[in-house]
């Protein structure tokens, strides 16, 4: 999901009780290359926390109806990861 100049991803793992492996990889190595369509760019991944995570979660659910079921099923706070372009 776009949030201004950033992209945000939802680490739901389809509502599984465990974070997806790709999320743990981003935490371990937050400097990544992102490909969206034909665009490719360097980015830095930062897990959102606190009120920022809540804001992003509400936006994500509003744009993707049904995903709140993943949160209810997971039994864990599902991470929201902000991918910020690196100049």
Overall description:
- With 87 residues, this protein is an alpha+beta fold.
- The protein has a single domain, classed as Pnp Oxidase, Chain A.
- The protein is 33% helix and 32% strand.
- The chain has three helices and five strands; from the N terminus they run E-E-H-E-E-H-H-E.
- The protein has helices at 21-28, 50-63, 68-74; strands at residues 2-3, 6-10, 31-36, 39-47, 80-85.
- A five-stranded antiparallel beta sheet has the order 1-2-5-4-3.
- The longest helix is centred in the middle third of the chain and has 14 residues, at 50-63.
- The mean pLDDT is 93.
Strand order of the largest sheet: 1-2-5-4-3
Overall body shape: globular
The helix/strand series, from N terminus to C terminus, equals: EEHEEHHE
Provide the β-strand percentage band: 25-35%
Structural class determined from secondary elements: alpha+beta
Low-confidence stretches: none
CATH homologous superfamily descriptor:
Electron Transport, Fmn-binding Protein, Chain A
| Whole-number tally of structural domains | 1
DSSP helical segment count: 3
CATH class: Mainly Beta
Largest sheet: 5 strands, antiparallel
CATH architecture: Roll
Tell me the total number of β-strands: 5
Radius of gyration, Cα only, in angstroms? Answer: 13 Å
| Averaged pLDDT | 93
CATH topology: Pnp Oxidase, Chain A
Helix content: 25-40%
Note the gap between the termini. Answer: 20 Å
């Amino acid at each position: 999901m776009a949030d201004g100049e950033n992209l945000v991803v939802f680490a739901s793992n389809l509502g599984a009780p465990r974070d997806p492996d790709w999320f743990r990889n981003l935490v371990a190595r937050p400097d990544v290359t992102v490909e969206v369509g034909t665009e490719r760019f360097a980015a830095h991944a930062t897990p959102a926390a606190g009120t920022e995570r809540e804001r992003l979660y509400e936006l994500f659910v509003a744009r993707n109806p049904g995903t709140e079921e993943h949160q209810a099923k997971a039994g864990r706070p599902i991470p929201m990861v902000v991918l910020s372009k690196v100049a």
